Amino acid sequence: MxxxxxxxxxxxxxxxxxxxxxxxxxxxxxxxxTPATSSNFSMRVDSEHAAITISGRDKxxxxxxxxxxxxxxxxxxxxxxxxxAETALHTQVYRRWPEAQAVLHTxxxxxxxxxxxxxxxxxxxVEGWELQKAITGHTTHEGVLEIPVFPxxxxxxxxxxxxxxxxxxxxxxSAYLIDGHGIYTWGRDMxxxxxxxxxxxxxxxxxxxxxxxxx
Amino acid sequence: MxxxxxxxxxxxxxxxxxxxxxxxxxxxxxxxxTPATSSNFSMRVDSEHAAITISGRDKxxxxxxxxxxxxxxxxxxxxxxxxxAETALHTQVYRRWPEAQAVLHTxxxxxxxxxxxxxxxxxxxVEGWELQKAITGHTTHEGVLEIPVFPxxxxxxxxxxxxxxxxxxxxxxSAYLIDGHGIYTWGRDMxxxxxxxxxxxxxxxxxxxxxxxxx
Amino acid sequence: MxxxxxxxxxxxxxxxxxxxxxxxxxxxxxxxxTPATSSNFSMRVDSEHAAITISGRDKxxxxxxxxxxxxxxxxxxxxxxxxxAETALHTQVYRRWPEAQAVLHTxxxxxxxxxxxxxxxxxxxVEGWELQKAITGHTTHEGVLEIPVFPxxxxxxxxxxxxxxxxxxxxxxSAYLIDGHGIYTWGRDMxxxxxxxxxxxxxxxxxxxxxxxxx
Amino acid sequence: MxxxxxxxxxxxxxxxxxxxxxxxxxxxxxxxxTPATSSNFSMRVDSEHAAITISGRDKxxxxxxxxxxxxxxxxxxxxxxxxxAETALHTQVYRRWPEAQAVLHTxxxxxxxxxxxxxxxxxxxVEGWELQKAITGHTTHEGVLEIPVFPxxxxxxxxxxxxxxxxxxxxxxSAYLIDGHGIYTWGRDMxxxxxxxxxxxxxxxxxxxxxxxxx
Lengths: 215, 215, 215, 215
Known about the structure:
Helix content of chain A: 25-40%
Largest sheet of chain A: 8 strands, mixed
Shape of chain A: globular
Keywords (chains A, B, C, D): Amino-acid biosynthesis, Lyase, Metal-binding, Methionine biosynthesis, Zinc
Strand content of chain A: 15-25%
Oligomer: homotetramer
EC number (chains A, B, C, D): 4.2.1.109
CATH class of chain A: Alpha Beta
Number of domains of chain A: 1
Radius of gyration of chain A: 17 Å
Mean pLDDT of chain A: 94
Family (chains A, B, C, D): Belongs to the aldolase class II family. MtnB subfamily.
GO molecular function, one term (chains A, B, C, D): methylthioribulose 1-phosphate dehydratase activity
Low-confidence stretches of chain A: none
Distance between the termini of chain A: 52 Å
CATH superfamily of chain A: Class II aldolase/adducin N-terminal domain
Order of helices and strands of chain A: HEEEHEHEEHEEH
């Protein structure tokens, strides 16, 4: 995309972020976590901008040209392309966590089913798994990892408000589910975001398995 | 296949359709949705003709030579090859939806099991999933997506009549299941048909998972 | 394997059979149906000989050199290699079905679990699935496909006797399970044997899914 | 890693062990058994040293440079790299079984879920499966394979003591689970360790399936 970038953003920087996003998207698509062109991915470019997937593209075939620039209010910058409908949830992460560099939103079957199953509780409480230690800030299997489940809506400001309310109440937050929809998580670099996503998928799948076995 | 095409059909057009069908078939076979040479795939060539898979071929190894031409009554055109037994279900879609360009029929385990489980209700009602939006015409997770389940038969005119009766009663139709068998869906191009199929597989799998977990 | 073949067997014929077995083994291993060096595969060479996998090799890395010749009593011919422990079950198929050209024995999780679940009935009865038509001789979903489940034993003659008794009672037989163990099936060529195996895996998996969902 | 090896260890020997570990790790990661940088792997180098994975690396991308040398007390030798937290469990195996050459610790979903489900019994008892024969020392499906489940802890000496107590009571041990965590198994070479791991994953998965089906 011959996108006229703002002068403050080196083209190489944008290209590197776009390539990293596209590579992650292709790998997550291969894992089956982005069915039917769903899911969206972003990386911070600077304090005022993020690179994010253009809406509706097949995530298994993503390239640099499927990534666009937005400002932290989620508005397209230097392009007529339409950003993912849920861009506001990405920029919220970058605004609230200055150290966040990558945000991943996927739709795996496990994530979607877990969100439906736990929606009535408003939260999934995960404990007793060694793999909780893969989430930054968790150093033992003995703690409890809380993943809130917010109601789904097509109106993004409602979801933004749910996330803000959770954070403003002082609860820690590494990731959240949206009912019938999927998961959001993030990290201080793409590797950490990927590790968080992979661990959360595993932990949710294990919790569902335990319920199937104990029913 | 050195197939004598009707003069009205440019050889390049037929070849392009055949290649697109074969590519889709190989990818769907890799996903495990076409066990034991089952499943069939087609694309519209013009208002009077469609390209469709020849019966009984291994879908994982399909090439252009495994695709033949049929007219909209399902008769072979310019070849002695035998079209898929269910050709009549494909040409029905092209007759009833002038905008339909591709029809996909697969046999995944999820599709087959869901068809058996919901056969007694005659329909699967899917609601509350964000991914319903991947089906053209659905713009929110709040609607209900109805996928009818028709009784299986080896006599195609009965199935054609079931589909016609559903449509003639004014119900919307994006896809249907056949009991103990598989799914049919379509789109205005191959990409849309693929997106529909992928979304339906996901939604049916999620519904089965919820039942396993709540039982 | 520089195997001194009997003069009556053209080296090219043995090599072709060995290559076909090795190729099938690698593909079935990739599908996860041959865990931990289990499973064995053979093809008829002539009325008196078959080519069969040598015992204990990793099926995911099989080559022509992992295949040996046996006579129809299961004795090694022209080699000191040890044939699979269950060679007698392969040669039984070639003796009882003159048209059989390939025998496949795998150990998928679905096959093993189904064998345990249905062992007390002595048979799995499969009906109502379109994919039954993939088994030669079955032309409709309305018939019943019976897959007997024989008790496991480390003493092969007992298993041979179970198979003989089933056949001698006049029951049709396309495949059988051994309790806690795996499946045997065959075909008039490797493609038919593969189609039978793939269809049986699918049908058993669907039957297990239905039980999970209806429990 | 330009690691100054002790004079007694030929560089080619260390490199061969490191390459074998990295190759096994990549294959096990591909199978999904090492989520989110978890799991660790080692091989004996000589009676006093083992090669083991450095902590926290992505197991899907492991190379020779991600492997370090430790002594049999688990201390880094000739490097500042930090060995896996659970190194003490590896070196215990090499101390207690002089013939052990490779130790594998993975975290598959099946292993983790089975460990939670059977933790209250302290052991998984596996019987009636042909694939038990893939575990060295087991020659029939009629025996019982016992896999103890030890409580998880972040304090390795407690786990070492649990394993010692099991062995000192005279029970045979081919593998053990840690609650909410994963599995340890080993072999007289990497191929045997891999065969053990693959068979144990299969057997645990089958046992979980039987429970789901009989519930």
